[in-house]
Design brief:
Distance between the termini: 33 Å
Number of domains: 2
Strand content: 15-25%
Radius of gyration: 18 Å
Largest sheet: 2 strands, antiparallel
Number of helices: 4
Structural class: alpha/beta
Order of helices and strands: EEHEHEHEHE
Number of strands: 6
Amino acid sequence: MRALLWNGRELKNDSSRPRPASDDRRALVRVRLAGVRPRGTLVLKSTHAEAHRLSLAPLVINEITVVGSRCGPFAPALAALAQKEIAVLPMIDRIYGLEEGPAALRRAAQSGTLKVLLSMAS
């Protein structure tokens, strides 16, 4: 399998990174939920096998929308990207400088926008 490159550097799956303990992940979900304003959206990204105890009352009371997003099999996706089987450039609406973060978020929230990127290049 060929290496996947980003800006000339090989991307690697770093499984050596320390992962938070289960209690830390549950606390993190509660903290993030507390930070969602009424009628806001909470995006849950990942799949955790552990059972969670979380009061749903704040979701209902504050009319919070919950969106889940899970990862599929990485190996075939990375291979398809490396072999340029997927055209990613048409998915990018616009690239913003990091200092334009608020404008990028506004654009990303507009209907029909699939992806915006933040560039940290000078």
